[in-house]
Design a protein that fits this description.
The chain is mostly helical. It has 3 helices and no strands. The chain is 76% helix and 0% strand.
Length: 54
Amino acid sequence: MEKYSKKESQEFIGTSPQPTIVAEREMGLTPEEKKLLKESMRRHDKALRMLANM
């Protein structure tokens, strides 16, 4: 998982149930799946930031 500040990660988790679910799911994933998961999370995070900046 990418590094977030405490406040940022709380906001992120607050806006979406994904990060906690992702952390639980990540346990049984292959490295390739983890990479895809991180990528989708990054995209999701970017979309959230873009919305926040509007």
